[in-house]
Structures are given as structure tokens and as C-alpha cells.
Amino acid sequence: MNLEKREDRIRYLRRPIECITFGTLAGLLVYGFFLHFNIAIYGWNLGLIFAPLVAGYAETILANRIIGENIGAISAFILFAYTTFYSFILKNPTLGFNFITFGSIIVILQAAFPTLINYILIVVGLGVVSYILGFFKKINTYIYNKIKYFIYKYILKEPYEPKTYTVEEYDEVQSNQMINDLDFIFLTSTNAFYKHIINLGHFTATVILEKNKHLVHPDPIQTEINTLNTLKAGKDECLVELTKKIKAAGGNGVIDLDIQYSLIGLGGDSYQVTAMGMGVYMK
User: Fold this and answer.
1) What is the CA radius of gyration of the chain?
2) Is residue 178 part of a domain?
3) What are the pLDDT digits (tens) for 99-155?
4) Partners of 272 in the beta sheet?
5) Mean pLDDT in the chain?
């Protein structure tokens, strides 16, 4: 029994080893081609990047065909280690770390761990950029208020009060009560538990809301609350308008209700809220 398990393990490992070997050989052939014809830019042989890339690609293609899964582009690491040793240690030990080796590392990691690298580049990278931009935005707001304070106090000789944005009034409880008082049925699905349903057609209601156009917001938190309240009020207005249209057609409900929010206008200077669905009469 143990002998059978050992044979199964050997048989299982043989295919990945064959894929790694195939990828490594493919990478070596590419590296030899670039070296033989001296294909380089500013003295840097492009085989340093393309050889590991081809190795990882060839290994991945073969592994997906004969195994049915990616085994990690191990041959790309082998080619990177070999090309680095050959070019920077054996042939020219004074070159050291440079842009080419850094680019090779990025290419290899992308081939071996695409999900992880994409997450780091996109999610973490964009998060860092957003944080930095937010930090500079706070600094700009502070400097902006200080400059205006100086102008008002020493040049205009007038008291300066920073402009603030008060939270717009929005009573969510009252708004929900208004929607309930419409005597109308809102369903986001098409599965209505009624004996008789008459389909009246597709209805749409749209509301355009003006967006805050100030580039500098003294109070970003209140501005965000105002935006949220504006969108909520726009959504309720859309539902009321949709209800009026369907009631005018003789209906008392809507199924497959969908509410969409989008930016419109030049540079996204307005919000658009759209409520759509199938108007019906249920009984």
C-alpha cells in the first residue's frame, strides 16, 4: 500500500517537473538567442526580461494542458536566477542592481502571482495615492483659509469667517412614511405573490440633482453627509414620480424595480437618479 502511494506521488510530481523543465529550456533558448545576436538597449541585453517571461509562459501553457492548473511559473524564477548570475556576477560583477533587474523581478512576480501583484499594484497603490491626495487636499484647504484670513484682515479690513456647509435637512423617517402612504407596491423581484397580475409595460422616472461644485470643502464630513442626503431625497422623488406614472396607467405596483445612480454633464457636474421597473396591476 505504501509502495502504491509512493508511486502515485512520483507519478504526480513527474508532470509538474516536466512542465518546469520545458519552461526552463524554452527560457534558455530565448536567452541564448538574445545573447548570440546581442539584442540590447543601451548595453542591457533584453534577454534578461524576455527569457524569464517566456519560461514562465511556456511552463504555464503546458501545465494548463496536461495538468489542468497553474503550478506557479517556477521556471521563471530559475531563469531569473540564472540570467542574473551569468550577466551580473559571472560576466560583469560591477553592474549590481539596476532598472533591468528590477523590471525582471516585476515581470517574474507578475507571471507567478498575478492576483497578488495586481492587488498590490491596483488596490494598495491606488489606496496610497488616494491617501496622499487627501492629505494634500487638507493642506490646501488649510492654506486657502489662512490666505483668505490674511487678505480680509490686513487688506480688506473686514472680519473673515470661513464658509461652512450646513447639513441639509432630510427626515428619513418622514420620507419613508410618505412612500408608505402612496398605497403602492414596490417589488425588486419579478416573483409577485398575487393571484392576478396585469402587465402595464415598462416605466421610468429620472431626477437630475446638482452636484456641489466647490473645489475646496472646509468641512468634508458635512459635505459627504449633504451628498448622501441629496441622493436619498432624489431616490424618494424618483419613486414618487414613478408611482404617479404607473397609477395614471391604472396600476398599483411595480415589479423588477431598479434604482440607478450616475454622474452626468461636463466633468460629472450633476447626479442622475433613475428608477425603472414593470408597472402592474395586482389583485
Assistant:
1) 32
2) yes
3) 555 665 666 555 555 555 555 666 666 666 665 655 666 666 667 677 777 777 777
4) 208, 262
5) 76
Q: Quick one: cell of 231?
A: 441622493
Same domain, 101 and 184: no
Cell (9 digits) for 23: 519552461
Identify the domain boundary among 67, 95, 112: 112
Q: How far apart are CA 119 and CA 106, in angstroms?
A: 14
- What are the C-alpha distances in Å from 37 to residues 19, 27, 83? 27, 16, 16
Looking up cell 515581470, which residue turns up? 107
Inside any domain, residue 51: yes
Provide the residue type at 253 as one letter.
Answer: G
Sheet hosting strand 197-210, strand order edge to edge: 185-186, 253-264, 270-282, 197-210
My answer on whether 270 and 201 are in the same domain is yes
The percent of residues above 90 in pLDDT, for the chain, comes to: 16
Single pTM value for the model? 0.43
